[in-house]
């Protein structure tokens, strides 16, 4: 009898009874339910098919509530999020309705209670770092229903990786995802699902300063872990995954006021040099270089927060366009200053843009060619006397075999050379004499006779170019703006 009583007492101490579960305190009830004789926290909840006796995978439903989201950190390609993650599953080993039918309330506990239970190991697949919030006690809450439904809630902070595309910066749109995956159990043992009702919710007071959230969506997928994509420790197989994505577009108000409008003003300031005199080298050089340096400083301060990507961004197209116009004003000054310092006047066929630019770009070759043409005309006209004298020598019988008795005339008007004897021959046909008539072979080419040249001083040409630049540069910049903003909003 003593041995039997001793044995019964030993069993009772090792496995506390649940007959008086109605009178137990919640902590006492959980302690007895999770005793090692009834509960193993390393073993997942197991359910069997009553017919086939097949084990079902544990179904874990997830819900997430986001009450804070920090603006995207473009330089590090990440964003921060404060959220409340809630996981629910059924564990019939914790059902106490059969032992205490009168207990209708859920049993609530914190971190100490969660350490006695089996919980699914869920992690953020795209996290940089994460931690559970709380000061002395971590913000963890566990609720157990009489039927064994377990709800695990934790408030956490996570820094998540987000791949961003900056081709249209600062008019870009970004899609950032949050991915939750099972760490230990594959799909044969555990599956993750979103709750049927409002799985994703946001704090109505949540605000983003630089971005505006357009929409969000969520899905359930399966990821594979193998020798190549080993993302779940040493375990191979298919793992259940949950994800939700927020679609954000950048607000451009800041960039309009702090980047685009100041850059337009800097470009316009560089055009002030067109109103200065062409020989005012110090102010025009200082104005051009200062505007160039100011714009480079403005652009570099704006691009410091961006990663060093290999493709061209829309903001860089704007930077190159504005730099081209500022640099163009410096080139224009160098051009007109070079013309201003010339000594010789420039002869123009017509006073228009074509001939002025052409004459200023190649002034000396044009004058040499013009001088050679004038000299050839003078020599051609003066050679007529030689022709007449050689003809008279032939008439007299003095023939010089080494002299060619012919003349080639190019682009000359009709010239008739007559002597006194020629006039008498014309009046008396019986007399002896020679008349030489030289007709212009190109009778239709009469532009050379009526062409008049206008002479302009280098200073007049320099001022003429400055006056045209005052209107040409703003019109070109206006066209660049139209093309730029059309591209931004249409593509």
From TrEMBL:
Cytoplasm in keyword set: no
Gene3D superfamilies the UniProt entry points to: Neurotransmitter-gated ion-channel ligand-binding domain (2.70.170.10), Neurotransmitter-gated ion-channel transmembrane domain (1.20.58.390)
Keywords, alphabetical: Cell membrane, Glycoprotein, Ion channel, Ion transport, Ligand-gated ion channel, Membrane, Signal, Transmembrane, Transmembrane helix, Transport
PROSITE patterns according to UniProt: NEUROTR_ION_CHANNEL (PS00236)
Transmembrane feature ranges: 259-278, 317-340, 471-489
Domain Neurotransmitter-gated ion-channel ligand-binding: from-to ranges: 27-251
Reaction(s) this enzyme catalyzes, per UniProt: chloride(in) = chloride(out)
Membrane topology field: Multi-pass membrane protein
GO molecular function term, any single one: extracellular ligand-gated monoatomic ion channel activity
Subcellular location: Cell membrane
Residue ranges of every copy of the Neurotransmitter-gated ion-channel transmembrane domain listed in the record: 261-485
Source superkingdom: Eukaryota
InterPro entries registered for this protein in UniProt: GABAA/Glycine_rcpt, Neur_chan_lig-bd, Neur_chan_lig-bd_sf, Neur_channel, Neuro-gated_channel_TM_sf, Neuro_actylchol_rec, Neurotrans-gated_channel_TM, Neurotransmitter_ion_chnl_CS
One cellular component (GO) term of this entry: plasma membrane
Family the UniProt entry places it in: Belongs to the ligand-gated ion channel (TC 1.A.9) family.
Name used for this protein in its record: pH-sensitive chloride channel 2
Lineage: Eukaryota, Metazoa, Ecdysozoa, Arthropoda, Hexapoda
